[in-house]
Amino acid sequence: MELNLQEHVDEIKNMPLQFARRGQKLSSSVPLVFLHGWGSDSRCWNPLLAYLEDEFECLLIDLPGFGLNEKSDAVDLDRLLELVEQSIPKKTHLIGWSLGGMIATQLVKCFPDRFLSLTTIASNAKFVVSEYWGNACDPTVYQNFLDGFRESPESTLKGFNLLQGRGDRHRKALKNHTVQNPCLINDDNVINWSAALHWLNQIDNRETLQNMNTPHLAIFGENDALVPSSVREQFIDSSMCSQNLLISDAGHAPHITQPERVAQALKDSFKQGHNPYQCDKKLVAQSFSHAAQSYEKVAHMQAEVASKLLKLRDDYRGDLCDLGCGTGFCMDLIRPQNTNIVGLDIASGMLEYCQNKYQDNPANLICADFENLPIKPNAFDGIVSSLSVQWSENLDQLFLQVKGCLKKDGWFLFSTLGPKTLYELKESWRETDSFVHVNQFVSQQAILQKLEATGFSIEMVQQGNEVLRYDTVFSLMRDLKDIGAHNVNAGKKKGLSTRRSFQCMANAYEIYRDAGSLPATYDVIYFYVRAS
Fold first, then answer.
1. Has 194 been annotated as catalytic?
2. Does the predicted TM-score (pTM) go above 0.70?
3. Of 164, 43, 35, nearest to 96 (Cα)?
4. Could you confirm whether 252 is annotated as catalytic?
5. What is the pLDDT of residue 499?
């Protein structure tokens, strides 16, 4: 069906789109802007808003031909983007579902300074199969849908609503929502509905997502019949999102069928955007890559912790993964009894060093972020991780992905750093300035709560201190540099610390000197859990 919008575009009024406002306008929060998908309107957000409106001001924009803008003039895509931009505050978080997510991505491309973050829900980079993009709708199916809508709009919409609920364990909630909030086709909106269908094929966000600097959370439904969950793997492989979440037992509308889960993911994502302790993952990878050659010469405590961790189990048979493997401390100890272990790390330099050690018997190594694991579900009998989890920006996301990678009754053995780690250095810097110089570490109790909430059963937890000693604070700082533990927090001081401030910190550290040396305390926590 060919669609000519020009005759309608000439009559466009210079009025912003109408939108609904919900929630609390708080000085401490940034407004949220929502864009719905095709065949729906802004009422689709009602289940999600029940978990957000107490904390955020929410602006719900209806696309032309839908909801409040049902009788609006037809527009082309560029004009739509301008109208949305005119309708919203200067700084917002942007959330889009399905087609709305694709349009939201275009908005970030055109007006990047207007948005603090982007969240797409059940949204593809390219809706229809194209060259180099196979996880999408078959072109023939798409064309049949266009033809069906032209011949029988109402029956096509009914079939589309059923398709959205396919594979969703809570599809009854979606059905009830659709019945209670019907979105009807009539003579006033059919042109706009047709235009929106053509946008699905017109929009190509692949390059935009790969080059985007705006934080992007991509949420997918495990059983989505319209945007297959395999799209998530393409997003990860092509670096198209900074965070991703796969919601189990969900179809194409997880914000309706599992709104609490989506709301929590949004809140966690927003917090990261304003967290002074947020780490730049690229800088973390670069820092550890640069330190690869010197790492094993100075990382004696890290080697000792890896050894203690692995003593918590006797059996290391089966399909295993070393998460955040670094130069291979854990792999060195496991490979003599089982070479069927995958090493994964974000730092390519670490992996290169690790592989050089195993030239006679090459290791299976993957360079990836462990919050965006490119691993198939149920791949491993067990996962080990020594002193890497503390680099996670989202433990809920990490633990969820780890659990998804484990087979039934699979085990997860890991060590991490607790809040008292390097407290001497942290307190000494606090005497000097208000910037962030030392990472923030999560408490044992908080980690346990997140593990249990994810569905892990706790087998064992241990906590203890590893204390290194130095003649001077400068020796400590040199060791931190040699193992790659640079300060890459968002709240760090821009530029180098001055000699005066560094000396001030060193003077403050002297109060901890004991028996002629300065202690550096590492608060190490060991966890042994199972996927229940």
1. no
2. no
3. 35
4. yes
5. 73
